[in-house]
Amino acid sequence: MDRRTVLAIGLMLIVAVLPAVLFPPEPPPPSEGADSLTVVEPAVPEPPSPAAVVAVPEAEPLSTPVDSADADERSVTVESPLYRWVFSTRGARLVDATLKDYRTFAPGDSGQARLLPDEASFLNYGLLFGNDTIPLGDWHFEPSSSALALAEGESGQIQWTATRGPLTVEIEYAFEAGSYVFDITGTFRGRSASGLLLVGLAPGIRQIEADSVDNFRSYAIVTKANKTESLKFGSIDSGEQRALSGPFEWVAIKSKYFVTAILVLGEGQPQFGGAVATGGPRLGRSAVHTDVVASLPAPGGAFNLSAFLGPQEFRRLSRIGNEFEDINPYGWILRPIIRPFANLIVIVLLWMHETLTLEYGWVLILFGLAVRVVLWPLNQKAMRSSMAMQAIQPEIKALQERHKSDPQKLQQEMMKLYKEHQVNPFGGCLPLLIPMPVLFALFFVFRETIEFRGVPFLWLPDLSRADPLYIIPLLMGLSMYAVTRIGQRGVPPNPQAKMMLYFMPIFLTFIFLRLSAGLNLYYAVSNIASIPQQWLISQERMRRRRAVE
Q: Could you tell me if 94 and 85 are in contact, meaning their C-beta atoms sit under 8 angstroms apart?
């Protein structure tokens, strides 16, 4: 690997990861557990007006008053092998959501992953008739069943009915044991005016990750209209209301690995007209709560939507449709380039894991070897092109000296020289940069992909987090030094190349110390796998040099 390539790799890594490494958000104060945050629960924003569905009229808020009494409030539990949902008869709201296949890693917490913060409620309904807002959060809904247990492959429904005065609201939730999606249909009658259904999402997602700062940084509201747009919690000041203009196919709140969302999945169904987000109190400098209320047209008093509370599993989200897998924004500003690579890599790694029945650590090792084998011919061509460039360096220097006062003539003569020796001046660099999109894609894959969350390998407790012993980053740095050192055998002495030999491995080791162990493992294996090819090329280079001498 020549110095231009090493420098290019270093510069791209600086652009991609250095800001996140050097300037992380200020960590929050220590807490005793996942929900020991001393935070005042934010009020749900007031709902949109019918004229402009994202405007906020002066009307009664959707939030359920804590002092509103409902002596008959009961819990209704829906359970399957995947989840445990707990609903309240007050408002037919979802008040607890447990994912049985995932566990919490928050300090001081243990057990299965619970998505909703304490005192939160998901599906907090309201109705809007003109400027008249009717919150349903304090209504008593009578359920058709007090509990629902679903075995694998089963489905079931619960109907809810509530009446106040002339207005009657009926809602049905339809569940499947093997899906985190449940369908919501309903009607309201007793009012002649056309109305909107208001749906409140819980003010965020429970903090269940080992690294709370990194998790808080991922908190965002994501909406899908013509394209997917993400609004970070931190971009909304505490108490600030932000109108989000629809129509939306879905509205979601995401953390690093999990998502809660409401969706319109049926063809021809009315979409969400808009949403209002209200910033909640902050924990230090971290924005941990944001309330979201979305509006949904209900023609004839009927509405139809779906809810999802679950992991950001790429294949599961893809099956839902409506580009819901786009909830996970691989790539930042490089997204158009990185996302296709990231999606393909996730598919390949999952396939290798399931087909070969190997741990993900061994899958990464095999993947790193496979990438090097596939790229062997291109790398071979690139290295030989680099040798050809080195062979004509004396002639290039002679041309530069002869035509130093005539740049145009110099350019013409150099192109003539390249053609005469059949040398591509870019051939030694570009093929070596092909692995870079894979490396960048893996950076985001390990940062955002839930399949690697909490996965151990050898001494590593979690492939998605940094190696606590720093063994893999140091091995990566040493392997990079070895690759560069061997690649310089037979090359004429060059002070810049010698400087890069030591600087880049040290610099990249420093950068990679805080990156995921899985990414370090892949890069170390990739470097080690390239050593034999570098050795063979260096032997060929030295033979040519001796022949010339």
A: yes
- DSSP 8-class letter at 89: T
Give Cβ neighbours of residue 204 (< 8 Å, ≥ 6 apart): 117, 120, 219, 233, 253, 255, 280, 288, 289, 290
Cα–Cα distance measured from residue 437 to residue 430, given in angstroms and rounded to the nearest whole number: 12
pLDDT of residue 64: 45
Alpha-carbon distance 381 to 3, whole Å?
17
Measured distance between the N- and C-terminal CA atoms of the chain, rounded to whole angstroms: 24
User: Quick check: 464 and 444 in contact, CB under 8 A?
Assistant: no
Vertex 124, ends 122 and 128: CA angle to 5°? 150
Residue range 302-349, pLDDT digits in tens: 999 999 999 998 888 888 888 888 887 665 566 667 777 777 888 888
Separation between Cα atoms, residue 383 and residue 392, nearest integer Å: 15
Residue-wise pLDDT tens digits, 349-402: 889 988 988 898 999 999 989 888 887 777 776 666 666 666 666 777 777 777
Cα–Cα distances (Å) from 85 to 100, 134, 308, 313, in that order, read 11, 26, 11, 19
Other Cβ atoms less than 10 A from the Cβ of 368: the count is 23
Place of tokens 């050898």: 458
pLDDT < 50 stretches in the chain: 1-8, 11, 14-61, 63-70
What is the C-alpha R_g of the chain? 29
Enter the CATH code of domain 75-329: 2.70.98.90
Which residues on neighbouring strands pair with residue 493, listed in sequence order?
A: none
d(CA 118, CA 86): 13
Domain positions in the chain:
75-329, 343-384+431-548
* Residue 373 in tokens: 């084998």
Bridge partner residues of 174 (DSSP) = 157, 183
- Reduce the DSSP state of residue 282 to 3 states and report it: strand
DSSP-assigned beta bridge partners for residue 143 = 160
Task: Count CB-CB contacts under 10 A for residue 245.
Answer: 13
Reference 3, options 497, 506, 490, 537; nearest CA is: 497
φ, ψ of residue 499 to 5 degrees: the values are -65, -45
What CA dihedral angle connects 324, 222, 274 and 317, to 10 degrees? 10
Q: Which residue has the tokens 């009020």?
A: 43
DSSP secondary structure string, 219-280? -EEEEESSSEEEEEGGGS-TT-EEEEEEEESEEEEE-SSEEEEEE--STTPPPEEEEEEEE-
CA–CA separation, 8 vs 14, rounded Å?
10
- For residue 215, the one-letter residue type is N
Q: Determine the pLDDT at residue 107.
A: 86
Q: How many whole angstroms separate alpha carbon 23 and alpha carbon 549? A: 52
> Token digits for 127?
């109705």
Contact 137, 90 (CB under 8 A): yes
Distance between CA atoms of 161 and 144, rounded to whole angstroms? 8
